[in-house]
């Protein structure tokens, strides 16, 4: 390529395979950015250049116009077209070889202090779901999900989309879905709310994020169950809140202990219906003590009604929210376990006076939820499919759980003690003997078992006397459970 | 209803219309919670009660079991069933009439300091879209969106859902969509990235929220264009960042002014391709100065490639991201204007070294995006529908814009001066005379015109000499434009 310091000689050969204004545009721009064409350099007229290159003049004009629009070229009546003289020095510093990685890293900015905390997550960024193994906890029976029925409703709702629905944005969520959720929660869970208190979200995690940012300030304390849901601990940290691990026993979170140790906490995260991961219910006395603490301290309760739908004896316990007289309970739930995780729809029920603030915060941090999915779910609920699916899954999971309990008691009773809460998607078993847990988990893994250790859910497990296993049963067929118990027996040397 | 302090007399009349364990359960629970049944009170045997009520004994047993599970009743061999003695004092405080609103408000907790800032939003929570009026800015031609084609792809993808796809969660977004976006951005916009740098989000707003929380700390400063996008200003405030309004002229944001006034800012929010709302491009010298400032100060640039797709002469300008050598540019875009807003899909292109941190932050604050919508959009892009739709809209909008410019110049030239940037969905017109803007907007509104005043986009408009109008044209047919210009002429007394 010709290198003239004060005028442009087009690289004719280059146009053999990329004729047109794009090629010329790119060449000229590269020549300017690399300093081959200096500021003020004269550019031939479009007529002249078109002749030299053997292209249509319009092609050259288009390239010139683009470069002028971007500030690379300057066309003035009388003085022809020149490389812009006002290019700053930084442009010239771009001349020369690309900088090394080390140099680039030196001038790259970094995460902020709070950003380093925020980037910590207990969730895998891209789970490799093809290698999961038996007993994987927290897994519903997706094989039993009525995909065809769902697809039919999706198709129907997609065909019914109107110009209006393409722009239907409500930061609280679509009114039809909010009504369906409020109705379901009222009848199935005893939640006292209207649709105006329901906020449709992408996940309970998003609800916790909004709640901590709206209701707490940096450095505030929050009670978390221990063992408990790691997402809550991480969610608090992400929002600059210090999580306080509170021990859980057979009556749920030890509220009295929590108040003695951390009386000034501003929020309590609890899973009262079905403690994650132990499966126990928060006892009534503790519920009332918790509400009383919140009232006296003007603190908040984030009630994650985790897996409350799956209770196999008696009906699910009514939520804390239904006992709240101080508008201090935020009630959260989601459809990931009851329908399917990739749906990404959850909800928060908010005390009346705070619903607008939550909607505003959702709007300014992520706007509003996608419309089609909400319309589909609203129809699925309205037509009774949701209630039917829940009933069917409750029955199925109860059978699967019974089988697993029976087999564990038959074959593994000298090593595992079943924690007998007929709830949830997982069975918790205490290790009865001083087994080396790390070695056990390694053997489970190599046998294709995806069991979790209870200590995985705990920040302070060292204090505990013994560990346990969390066995997911909901997604496993009876034959699969039988095979997996055999493998577990092998891993436990039973 | 009988009120016995030490034993339970069922309200027989109450069972006339709500037989069954639920009714009995509710009555007993209410009696305990209101103190009508005191701790320790004896409850008749299930047989006795069933006889009195004339219901099946199983019904009574079910209610008892539920109440025992919740801790209200205590059943001990030999001593019969009694109201739980361990109910704490708080329970009794619930006796008596419901508290007044004022009392409740007194003990209700409040928003936190940062929460009050977060709850401020420039977006309507639930827009009333049926009353919008002509010239509404930022509105694409949704009437022209190929809804049927979209519905066909939705149906196809819904029918193809597998058990695996029901649980396909990637915090970065679905790989198929990330690939489609990376390919589109590379070819159509000159963005240099791989799919590993693409983060699929619900909105640009969510991208800004993540960026400010990951990269900035509370109290940091950020440059914002003035006039500019109100969502950016609000987004910064929501994350505890102080937005610094930077004037915009015909070359875009005045970067030199910004550095003189606020040299220590940690981030600049810019719309370089098509400044929102003026429509100008950031000039090349200013682009380079901005990049140089970011390099020297180790600051970040948030490039919102706002409406860059809609440029009606020449091709869209290449983004700042393509000139970035310091990994300091975050490139954001979305499908709300090019497809439809209710889709709720946007993206952020992140410097290689920070992609994992962003994915982690997205995961801990809201998990991952819904899968079906992403599969649909990926197919729509892969099959070329997206590029075709964009071409068609570009052509249509160019025609609509030309018509509007022609009519304004013909009929309103003595009152409005067209800002002639052939870009975007809106036409900006300066008011040439000292018109009272408030009165003008009032008259526009009563004529059914949804025009915006330029000052609406500005924090510091007082400094400016004159105001202007923002006229949305993209969603208006030619006849509608003609009618609306007539109404505008009336409002302007032309």
Structure summary:
The structure is a homodimer of 494-residue chains. With 494 residues, chain A is α/β, with parallel strands linked by helices.
Q: Roughly what percent helix of chain A?
A: 25-40%
Note the gap between the termini of chain A: 78 Å
Number of helices of chain A: 17
What gyration radius of chain A follows from the Cα positions, in whole Å?
31 Å
In terms of per-residue confidence, which ranges of chain A show pLDDT below 50 for 5 or more consecutive residues? 1-19, 92-101
Largest sheet geometry of chain A: 8 strands, mixed
Oligomer: homodimer
User: How are strands sequenced across the largest beta sheet of chain A?
Assistant: 4-11-10-9-8-5-6-7
- Given helix and strand content, the structural type of chain A is alpha/beta
Task: Give the strand tally of chain A.
Answer: 15
Largest two-chain interface = A-B, 128 and 128 residues
Strand fraction band of chain A?
5-15%
Shape of chain A: elongated
Mean pLDDT of chain A: 87
Structure description:
Two copies of one chain form a homodimer. The first copy, chain A, is α/β, with parallel strands linked by helices and about 500 residues long. Chain A is about 40% helix and about 15% strand. In chain A, the strands form three sheets. Chain A has an eight-stranded mixed beta sheet with strand order 4-11-10-9-8-5-6-7, with helices on both faces. Chain A has a four-stranded antiparallel beta sheet with strand order 12-13-15-14, with helices on one face. In chain A, strands 1-3-2 form a three-stranded antiparallel beta sheet. In chain A, a hairpin with a 7-residue loop joins β12 (about 415-420) and β13. In chain A, α1 packs across α3 (about 55-70) and α2 crosses α3. Chains A and B meet through α3, α5, α6, α7 and α9 of A and α3, α4, α5, α6 and α7 of B.
């Amino acid at each position: 390529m010709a290198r003239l310091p004060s005028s442009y000689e087009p690289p004719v050969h280059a146009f053999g395979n990329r004729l047109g204004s794009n090629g010329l545009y790119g060449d000229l721009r590269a020549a300017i950015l690399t300093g081959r064409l200096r500021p003020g350099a004269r550019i031939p007229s479009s007529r002249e250049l078109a002749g030299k290159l053997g292209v249509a003049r319009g092609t050259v004009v288009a390239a010139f116009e683009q470069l002028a629009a971007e500030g690379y070229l300057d066309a003035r009546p009388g003085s022809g077209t020149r490389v812009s003289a006002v290019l700053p020095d930084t442009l010239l510093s771009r001349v020369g070889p690309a900088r090394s990685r080390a140099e680039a890293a030196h001038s790259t900015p970094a995460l902020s202090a709070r950003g380093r905390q925020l980037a910590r997550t207990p969730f895998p960024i891209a789970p490799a779901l093809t290698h999961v193994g038996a007993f994987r906890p927290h897994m519903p029976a997706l094989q039993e999900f009525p995909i065809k029925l769902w697809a039919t409703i999706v198709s129907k709702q997609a065909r019914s989309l109107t110009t209006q629905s393409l722009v239907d944005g409500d930061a609280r969520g679509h009114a039809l879905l909010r009504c369906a959720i409020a109705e379901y929660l009222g009848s199935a869970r005893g939640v006292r709310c209207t649709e105006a208190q329901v906020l449709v979200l992408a996940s309970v995690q998003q609800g916790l994020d909004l709640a901590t940012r709206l209701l707490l300030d940096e450095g505030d304390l929050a009670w978390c169950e221990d063992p408990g849901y790691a997402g809550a601990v991480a969610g608090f940290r992400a929002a600059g809140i210090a999580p306080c691990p509170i021990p859980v026993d057979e009556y749920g979170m030890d509220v009295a202990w929590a108040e003695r140790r951390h009386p000034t906490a501003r929020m309590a995260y609890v899973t009262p219906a079905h403690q994650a991961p132990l499966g126990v219910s928060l006892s009534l006395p503790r519920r009332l003590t918790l509400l009383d603490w919140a009232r006296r301290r003007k603190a908040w309760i984030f009630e994650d009604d985790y897996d409350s739908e799956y209770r196999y004896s008696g009906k699910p316990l009514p939520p804390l929210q239904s006992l709240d007289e101080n508008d201090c309970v935020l009630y959260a739930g989601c459809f990931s376990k009851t329908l399917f995780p990739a749906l990404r729809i959850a909800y928060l029920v908010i005390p009346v006076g705070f619903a607008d603030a939550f909607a505003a915060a959702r709007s300014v941090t992520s706007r509003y939820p996608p419309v089609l999915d909400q319309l589909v779910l609203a129809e699925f609920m309205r037509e009774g499919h949701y209630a039917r699916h829940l009933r069917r899954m409750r029955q199925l999971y109860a059978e699967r759980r019974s089988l697993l309990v029976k087999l564990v008691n038959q074959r593994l009773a000298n090593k595992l003690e079943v924690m007998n809460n007929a709830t949830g998607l997982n069975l918790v078993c205490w290790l009865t003997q001083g087994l080396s847990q790390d070695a056990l988990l390694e053997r489970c893994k190599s046998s294709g078992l995806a069991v979790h250790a209870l200590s995985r859910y705990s920040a302070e497990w060292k204090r505990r006397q013994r560990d346990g296993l969390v066995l997911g049963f909901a997604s496993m067929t009876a034959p699969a459970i039988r095979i997996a118990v055999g493998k577990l027996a092998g891993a436990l040397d039973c």
